[in-house]
Amino acid sequence: MDFWLHVVNMIGLFIMLGVSLNLLLGYGGLVSMAQAAFFGVGAYAAALSARDLGLPFPLTLVVAIVVTTLLAGVVTFPALRVRGEYLILLTLAFQMVIYGLMLSWVDLTAGRTGISGIPRPRLFGKTLVTPAEFLPLIAAGALVTFAIAYRIGESPLGRVLKAMRDDETATLAIGKSVLRYKVLVFCVSGGLAGVAAGLFAHYQAFINPFSFNLDRSIFLVALVVLGGTGNLLGTVAGAILFVGLPEVLRFLQARQDIVDAIRNLVFGLLLVLFMRFRPEGLVPEHARGRRRQGVGQPAPALSGPGILPSAGPAHDGAGPALVAQGLRKSFGGIKAADELSLALPRGKVTALVGPNGAGKTTVFNLLTGFLAAEAGTVALQGEDITRLAPWRTVRLGLARSFQDVRLFERMTVLDNVLVALPQQPGERLGPLFFAPRRTAEAERRNRDQALGSLAFVGLVDRAGEIASSLAFGEQKLVALARLIATGADVLLLDEPSSGVDLQWVRRILDLIRQLAAAGKTVCIVEHNLEVVTAVADHAYFMEAGRIIAEGRPEELMADPRLADIYFGKARR
Amino acid sequence: MLALAAQLATNGLISGSLYALLGVSWGLIFATTKIFHFAHALTLTVAVYAAVLAVGQWGLGLPAGFFLAALVGCLFGVATERVVYRPLRRVNATSLNIFLASLGLLIAGESAVLIVFGPQARDLPGFPISGIALGPVAFTTVEGLWLVGSWALLLLLIAWLWWTRYGRAIRAVASNRELAQCVGIDPEHVSLLVFGIGSALVGLGGMLLALRDTVSPTIGVQPVLTAFIAVFLGGIGSIPGAVLGGLVLGLAENMGGLLLPGHWQGVIAFVVLFSVLVFRPSGLLGVRTR
After folding, report:
1. Taking the model in full, what pTM does it have?
2. Inter-chain residue contact B109 with A93, CB threshold 8 Å
3. Which residues of B touch A93 (CB under 8 A)?
4. How far apart are CA B191 and CA B180, in angstroms?
5. N- to C-terminal Cα separation, chain B
6. Helix H or strand E segment including A28
7. Which domains, from first to last, does chain A contain?
8. Is the ipTM above a cut-off of 0.85?
9. Which helix (H) or strand (E) holds A379?
10. Tens digit of pLDDT for each residue in B136-169?
């Protein structure tokens, strides 16, 4: 009996570890090959503080959590700069360093011998020793860990994490500090692994480095991936199947190493096959019944410009909304922006036209802080924003879209828009856990707001669908709704009509006009000259990083010199 | 002190040369196919096991053993590309998913080797081991072979990459897959080619290791981790970079003992990797990207 209870306890511990990793990997899109290292550091922290410092049980658990959280915070800083393979390797290096130190820093860890005699915890006047006595404690730990992770994952905060996973650049462009969320999710993930670590140390009463090696980290990644990333229930299923089932093997085969080998063989093959045939895992992120959002809800009252959200007070002042002066930027020998100045008049549509490679998109990148200018200034509503990070310029009311749309592909249409709304209390841990009612109310309001944006572009009936399943033209409209949801007053649209059918072009142009009529300041980069003449009040003509003409679009189109530059002219 | 430093530097160069070979064997595949081929470790294990069995049990000569290791490695690598990676590319798997499949293959393969051949360590017999003294420094005949063998293979590979049609095709795909396709190079063929060559090289590298260390089912992981470090230290996509990375790593591991407290010794390699990723992610000779 004790054996089976032990198996249940191990499943509980792996649920905690798996859930902590899923938050990082499945929600945040950050691969960590070092989860076992965090687990190990937490376990050593609990073991040493209990045995050598004589701290009582719940306190040692706190020590484990604090240590792993802080350590995760420290590791985050190098990890902030890297992605993909680099992050895999960085966390792998971290795992190996920690494991190596556990083995060789004998004074602290006793090396291979490990630490024994970890005091048994006393709770409610009872000393916990057997698996049966530990079961309630571990079950409670697993439940709390799961609840915390679930609360985070399925909240506005989790939505930002998923956005970051799907497209970091676009996440910056809707005004979310990717840096902040990365640090946050690493720390939370580390802390949750610390819960498992503290319980594990006391449960085993003995730890050595071999529980925290690279194989364990790999096993955890595989467990989360096979269970299903971005869905915590998948991790629970994965833990039960892949930790629990192999134990049955022990009755058929006595030798421990062969049992482990068979388990790993099956496990490895499953991983290969799943990647080929079912990469979303056992329980997919958008499993049936989870895609109910927005569907069948009554659309809120939609009329007039009132449905357009706005960040902060409206700026009614005179003068242009955005002014750029003397911007300079070069890539190697190419001057992408050369003493470039422009102004966007309030409530008007301005167009930036010019041949391919003139530097139009670079201008957008310079204005919004995605690129740092070598010289020059940008002022928004009279305030200098030249050196601000992209997400800050969005908060101040200047947002941009992308030529290649950049939707958050694995999220629903509604979530794509919802995530862009500013200042959501549910994006912060404090209100999320300590002011649930305020969070819920804000979420209801935001939902109506987002549906309003979707209604504005005419896609409210697609709210529940996965963004990547939409046609390209519809995706452009979702991107527009997302841009509007940021509440920014100055909107920069990079080729809003490129690559879409004529019917969509008309619709998009109509929406741009409505935005301007509602008081938004709009600037478009556009190739289609018909589009420019149809919507723009004013146009700048760019060539080789400079603005060489400005005026009413019709005037510019009529200038034969510009037409030559635009369409190219055989030089004689 | 000076004699000690000279000896440590020699040791560093010797192991560094082998690291360079391992690094290049993996870096060639990674630079060309962009696959984070963790199962390279399995290729090494399989190749070395085949050779150890042939030499130890069937009495094959050691040179034939080396040849067999290269051949088995090559075939195993090519099979991995064809059976595992290509179907994944066909369904547009993300690079993370391909990496995970590679990880799965490694876990499964190591376990299969363990189930079939058992966990016990084996030896590669037949190499005469003795000491060689050169002025103030000394090393064994095995280490001498590491130095000579690694450099011979490295120079051969570099010459081949630079001066032959196939070599140029590989470098073309590595620098720009789409553009290479436009000038008539089939990237699928090139993928097979680099998997074949890289895997043959790691088989040979594994044999060099097996001359000194015992062989067990998990023999492949540590050398391949070393290869990752050499490649990222030198800079992805640069073959000379991987060579330099391997040498620097070998020297750092051996010379680091002069500066660092004892318990850091075993983790120097990963501390080096960690520092490079933090301070110079493009590597020593890598191309800086925006």
Report:
1. 0.89
2. no
3. 229, 270-271, 273-274, 277
4. 13
5. 45
6. none
7. 2-218 (no CATH), 324-397+489-572 (3.40.50.300), 407-487 (no CATH)
8. yes
9. strand A375-380
10. 888 888 888 999 999 999 999 999 999 998 888 8
